[in-house]
Amino acid sequence: MARIGVFVCHCGTNISGVVDVSRVAKYAESLPGVKVAVDYKFMCSDPGQNTIIDAIKTHNLDRIVVSACSPRMHELTFRNTLERAGLNPYMVEMANIREHVSWVHSDNKELATEKAMKLMEMSVSKVRRSEVLTKMFAPIEKRALVIGGGIAGIQAALDIAAAGYKVVLVEKESSIGGRMAQLDKTFPTLDCSACILTPKMVAVSQDKNITLLTYAEVTEVSGFIGQFEVKIKKKAKSVNSKCIGCGVCVTKCPNKKSLSDFDGRLGPRKAIYTLFPQAVPNVPVIDRETCTFFLTGKCKICEKVCPTSAVDYTQQDELITEKFGAVVVATGFDIYDHSSYGEYGYGEIKDVISSLQFERLISSSGPTEGHVVRPSDQKEVKNVVFIQCVGSRDESKKRPYCSRVCCMYTAKQAMLLKDHYPETQSYVFYIDIRAAGKNYEEFVQRAQNDYGVVYLRGRVSKIYERGNKLLVKGADTLSGAQVEIEADLVVLANGLEPRKGAKEFSQLFHMSSDQYGFYNELHPKLAPVETAISGVFVAGCCQSPKDIPDTVAMASATAAKVCAIFAKEKMEVEPLIAGVNQLTCSGCETCYNVCPYSAIEMKDKEVKRGEVRHVAEVLESVCKGCGVCVGACYSKAVDLKGFSERQILSQVETATMPITNS
Amino acid sequence: MLKVAYFPGCSLSSTAKEYDISTRLVCEDLEIDLVEIPDWICCGATTAHITSELTAAALPAKSLVWAEKQGLNITSPCSACFSRLKMAHLHIEKDPKLKKEVEEVIGEKYNGKTEVMHLTRILIEQYGIENIKAKIKKELKGLKIACYYGCLMTRPAEVCVNDRVENPMLMDNLVKALGAEPVKWYYKTECCGAGFSLTKTEIARKLSGDILKEAKDCGADLVMVACPLCHSNLDARQPEIAKLIKTELNIPVLYFTQVLGLALGYNSMDLMLNKHFINPKPLLKAKGIL
Amino acid sequence: MESKVKEINIVGFLCNWCSYAGADMTGLGRNIYPSNIKVIRIPCTGRMDPMMIIEAFHNGADGVLVSGCHPGDCHYTEGNFYWRRRYPHLKSLLEHFGVDRRRFHASWVSASEGKKFAEVVKKVYAEVKDWKDNG
Amino acid sequence: MDKELQEIIKKLLAEKKVDWAIGYEKAYDELSTRPAFVQDANDTARLIFNKYCINNLGLYLTKFKKNKLAVVCKGCDIATVFELIKEKQFSRENVVVIGVACEGVLDKKTGKQLEKCENCRVKQPKGADFTVGTGKDSAAPKNFLDVVEFEKKSSKEKAEFWNRQFEKCIRCYACRNVCPVCYCPDCFANRTMPEYLNKNVDAEENKLFHMIRMQHVFGRCTDCKACDTACPVNIPLTLLTKKLAKDAKELFNYESGADMDVLPPLSTYNEADSESDIL
Question: Given an 8 Å threshold on Cβ–Cβ distance, is C79 in contact with A628?
Fold first, then answer.
């Protein structure tokens, strides 16, 4: 038989000013199982808590009801009180007679008191059905997996490594660096992208805690927080670890048939190549689809010229399986493919280029060594038109969102152009200027005031090729005029979208994504780097478009989250989770279908001797205790600890019974 | 045998008679069965759709329902008729309330089973370029043609099925198949100003002039069209435009069915080439086609 | 015949993260509402087992209110979407068995909508009273 | 037709494609049939199909889960089989569905055709592995006229109607026991902890049982009428099961057992679901 103590709080006069607290306590004494009931001025104060501890000892109580304020306020306080008194912390229930009674029913003290008595009684009947719950612990594999070697992945890896934990950084290209490595300068400071990125890339390669796997991809994931098991495919590089990065092979390779994706396909790329001069690791790879040797069986020049015999044509793809405790997903973005824009020439007009192509053109390590020339005839440019919101804020292209960085990089590109070629004139077509960020608005103002960039508010309706010029027709909605500009080059501000294959990738982790394919964070405000999958975090543009400072901040945030997991010896898991009675489970998979966290596993299990059944099982470290499975289970085999069917049913019964003995 | 309901419309019964004649001729030659809708009524352009949504939908619905009953798709060579038929269909499909009203007005059920296809699509896509090629009697070698699509065939984007709104290629591909050379130009879908043809003629003159000049600059021998309104602007107004912009234009404007007819071996009289203001015969003779 | 205030009994199921917090907010704002509602805290409307509602009516509750986070705001991302499916089905079934539709309600109340919670309770109270008085 | 049916089953048993075949056989009089369980290929001669084969044999599939089974199904019974497969009670590979064309079945008590057979759209079975005979489907869709009529009553009238009905109920649980989707290992009605249901038999308690059972089979019940036919005191359970079918269709455009790829309505959601009635 339960031994229950009921403690009624006055909360100064907050409660007692409306509710007859002594009557509530008196009524409590009449309830079955209640051994003691007292009222006190401030239950949450030290003396108040001590009253509870003393009563537990004197009356040998095993369950407590505190009639006071909202459990959202003080449930934790009283759980700790119970723990100090040597009771299981989950044996306390609170009756909310302040927020839900005295403060809202001050118009009728009699009814307020009766309701307070009822709520207290409901808590008593609930606590009588409470079960001892023990905090659970799960082991943690203290190694982190970071997927994506852009600035987000680099930062996350460095931060986690700095805390002393092992990190594996997986990058699908042959070098880390990501999109930031393609950029020339960065806004709003105009410092050189490579200059600030390269040291971080080198730091990654030199950090003893970081294992760098480039030219590699994650292919399979199982397990859960603390215990992820991940298969990684290391693609054959055809160059082994003896390589010293001298680059002779690349120089001598006669095959330059392919175009460099890194350079926006504006320049050639050898069959053996490093992504860019500052690549980390500085080890070239052979593209077997274009290499003459792999196609025809002849050539082998790279093997001949290599001073360290590092070229190895026999290398095979390798599949490795590793265990991780937490994962940071930083898979980045692609730019919107503007070939869907007929009015800009379906991507077929050579001198209408993407923003990333412009970055490569103006970069001194780019295909033209920093000379901004027209791709069609390599001539220098004079008039350049920039068009913003290409694949952003465009309902018709199903891209209604703002890509956040285009206003800024367009201003930057126009300024850089003027710096390089003072005689050029830039025009920018825009919808709105979105320059929210430290020193951002000032930056755009500089472009307009100091650099003479002409901003036209409106869209371009058509680009015509006219002789060797481009005729750009558009509207300037501020003056209401039709504008025609004869341009040498048109640069589109392509919006940001998820990497191709982002949806398929998210399925590896059962992460959810929005309609565009950006990964969903757990909560848009209060859990922006967590995902619905415990132990999997997101950083950078795979979650939504953002600039470099936000990306870096987000990456560091994920690192903090990962370190917080790793800092514990074992992982503590709230015990208020679901559990399956497998004897009554019918194996219909309804719970498995509805669980938002993939915390249900279906198993063929011997539930009775000699009887193997298809049944559900809750992954305790994954379950977050929402109870959707309980609401959905018609076999009534799943239950939720702390909010069990028995507890709620008893509350329902008590709530509908009239008050007795009052 | 390809069978399709035929909606000629008012232009093809009057100012664009040659379009109607050449269409029927070409289809007969290619063995495409055009079933003229008996008692076809006005498509509604442009008075209906600027005054009443219901009338604009109900007028074409009548013809659409007839075609549906025959189990036929429906075509019209006139871009305006095509546009109205197509838009009415799209509007009715999208708006259940309108559908109900239309059904009440026409007194029949509208199921939307009939597809509205412009004649270019019927010929080039359904009948097929390869099949046309097989029937060619005379290759139109050396003829540079600017294919002009105008607005009604291509806009809004929903009507432009299987082609690119901003740079349509259907007629260009046909021209190539006939042995002529399609000119690469950018004014394929620019506005000819037909909407202002009678009210603010100077706008129509300016816009049509731009198109003709661009065609000429890009080296076109003739402009090929698929719309009676475009034709009247580009052809009938050409002399006054030439005077206005002080440039000699003299660039014949033919319907695509006429060009196709030439390749199938028909002569000037068959195709009513004499009906044009800019006489195409000297050019065609010079190229050895007539 | 008009029923006495005391005779009306409403059971409220509020999700912990939005509506329960919203009801707390009602208290903070001292917005008065009928005391007939007795609140049971649940983690999420997705936890709402339809059996509990059937049992509540069976036990003699005059009204039931289930309140959760607005769609898209669920603490568990999608729990309230499942509830949003159970609700119309359950309401329709209960009605078929003779449980008047004025007796069973659902609402979305966020943690900041203290005033709204008071309004919702008033509305539910009025509906239940209307049923009790006028049949 | 019986011959053809027997041959198919004989072959399946002889070739060891299935362990058991479930069909119908003649019972104590001409108007009675009962389920027959055949294990021996030489024992198939007793299998028949006629207009008195009212049982939904899908019921027995969950009781022989470990075996490979062949089951004789009327078009309407196939929905049950599909629903059970969807609920992972067995896999499609483990059951051979032998569809029999059906011109409607008769309730031998009344001699009348079951109401569900009137507008039957699966007289010709769909989705079966073998089909015997040909049937002509009704062109008219299922109608819910009686449910609509009942819905017009006031809630007081409805409550009174059901109270009268459930006063008759003796809680024999026949309705549950013949229900193919009532396969829970431990029915809530039998539980003592928590005690969802008192064990005493009275109108209120009986109504609670039926309300919960109906809620539990929502979106899964194929409206096969097994419960309605089985009820010894003639409670019109069809008025409830048809309501479920109507609601599933109207609220969620769902038809139990119709589409193997669509999850039951309460196992999924759509972000655009209606919230017309939510405050």
Answer: yes
CB atoms within 10 A of CB B65: 20
| Nearest residue to A301 via CA among A283, A286, A314, A289 | A286
pLDDT digits (tens, 9 = 90+) for A193-241: 999 999 999 999 999 999 999 999 999 887 778 889 899 999 999 999 9
Chain A CA closest to residue B214: A466
Share of chain A above pLDDT 90, in %: 83
| Mean predicted confidence (pLDDT) in A80-102 | 93
Digit-coded pLDDT (tens) for B74-83: 999 999 999 9
Res. C1: pLDDT tops 90: no
Cβ neighbours of A107 in C, within 8 Å: 32
* Nearest Cα residue in chain A from D193: A646
pLDDT surpasses 50 at A662: no
Q: How far apart are CA B237 and CA B231, in angstroms?
A: 9
CB A460 within 8 A of CB A474: yes
Q: Would you state the pLDDT for residue A410? A: 97
A23-50 residue pLDDT tens: 999 999 988 889 999 999 999 999 999 9
CB atoms within 10 A of CB B203: 14
CA distance A7 to A95: 10
Residues ≥6 apart with Cβ < 8 Å to A434: A402, A404, A407
Q: Which two tokens stand for residue A289?
A: 């689809």
Residue A458 is encoded by which pair of tokens? 């409106």
User: Cβ distance A357 to A390 under 8 Å?
Assistant: no
- What average pLDDT does the segment B90-96 reach? 93
C-beta atoms of A590 and D87 within 8 A: yes
Residue A541: which of A566, A523, A521 has the closest Cα?
Answer: A521
User: Nearest chain C Cα to A122, which residue?
Assistant: C40
- Distance, in Å, from the CA atom of A349 to the CA atom of A65, rounded to the nearest integer, reads 75
- Domains (range + CATH), chain A: 4-133 (3.40.50), 135-235+317-332+501-571 (3.50.50.60), 236-315 (3.30.70), 335-497 (3.50.50.60), 574-641 (3.30.70.20)
Stronger pLDDT, A73 or B21, i.e. the higher one: B21
CB contact under 8 A, B167 and A346: yes
Contacts of C32 in chain A (CB under 8 A): 104-107
Q: Which chains have at least 3 CB atom pairs separated by less than 8 Å from chain A?
A: B, C, D
User: What pLDDT was estimated at residue A227?
Assistant: 85
A-to-B residue pairs, Cβ atoms closer than 8 angstroms = 18
Confidence of residue C87 (pLDDT cuts 50, 70, 90): very high
Give the minimum alpha-carbon distance from B244 to chain A in angstroms, rounded to a whole number.
22
| Same domain membership, residue B184 and residue B45 | no
Chain B environment of A345 (Cβ under 8 Å): 166-167
**A462 part of contact set with chain B, CB < 8 Å:** yes
Pick the CATH number of C5-134 from 3.30.420, 1.25.40, 3.30.565, 3.40.50: 3.40.50
- Mean pLDDT of all residues belonging to chain B: 92
Residue of D nearest to C46 (CA): D266
Does residue B46 surpass a pLDDT of 90?
A: no
ipTM at complex level: 0.61
Domain interval for residue B106: 2-118
Cβ of C24 within 8 Å of Cβ of A651? The answer is no
- Chains B and D touching, counted as 3 or more CB pairs less than 8 Å apart: no
CATH code of B99's domain: 1.20.1050.140
